[in-house]
Amino acid sequence: MTRWTDAAARLCQHGTVDDTERDPRPYVLWDVDGTLLRNGVNAGGLYGEAIELAIGRPLEHPVPRVHGKTDGQIIWEALDANGLPRDLHSLASAHLDRLSLERHLGGSRREIAPGVVGALRAFAERGFVNALLTGNSANRTRYKMEGAGLDTLAFDWGHSYFGDTAPLRAEITLRAAAELEGHRLVIIGDTPGDGIGADAAGIPFIAVATGHYTVAELRETGAALVVEDLLGGLPEVLAALAGLPSLDRA
Ligand SMILES: [Mg+2]
């Protein structure tokens, strides 16, 4: 657990818990795609469609690989790859939200990843706040969750962090770390990109192999813990979380 200790020590450098503060509850910041929900079969297709709607013609070059990137980043990269003006970003983002809603209303259903419902409950029972840290916009996150039948009320949306304009995931994690300074934090995600973002903000990272990446690939990240999924891996995750509170007071 050396990495965990290191990450917690980094957290201490810019935020320690003041015992006199009101309710410094620990937060579990959840990634969405591949972590809370199984990836869609055509995970990248919607981005290209949104940009094509914004420009009114087909894209010349495909949208670069999307796993672990923020919506904002994917759109910036696809615009650049196609030599398109960057001020098309907000229009493409609006189309992306609308396409997600259409998919949601059209019955395109995502599946909840194994063990997620039990993990959400177990974390809450232990005093952790479940919140979101995702490359999706808030709207897209909501549509996907509702489509999958995941209870949106299980999350603190007021302290959740979204990436519809963020060019890099680190921008979202740094925003979360600044706003939740003094709270103990942990990120749960399914990609090396989640780990890089967590590292950038000194937030401990737990990886689940329910998305595009394998346990072996995720072990190459700075993750404190890697589990196959939250069904079999839940006891290990709970043990790791139980170790978190004392570390940032050291
Ligand atoms: Mg993900």
How would you summarize what this structure contains?
It is built from ten helices and six strands, in the order αβααααβαβαβαβαβα.
What is the topology?
Elements: H1 2-14, E1 27-30, H2 45-55, H3 71-81, H4 89-105, H5 116-125, E2 129-134, H6 138-148, E3 161-162, H7 169-179, E4 185-189, H8 192-200, E5 205-208, H9 215-218, E6 225-227, H10 234-247
Parallel strand pairs: 1-2, 1-4, 2-3, 4-5, 5-6
Helix pairs in contact: 2-4, 4-6, 7-8
The structure holds magnesium ion.
How does this model look, in words?
- The structure is a single chain.
- By secondary structure, the protein is α/β, with parallel strands linked by helices.
- The protein has two domains: 177 residues, Rossmann fold; 61 residues, no CATH class.
- The protein contains ten helices and six strands.
- A six-stranded parallel sheet has the order 3-2-1-4-5-6, with helices on both faces.
- It is globular, with a radius of gyration of 18 Å.
- The C terminus is likely disordered.
- Magnesium ion binds next to loops.
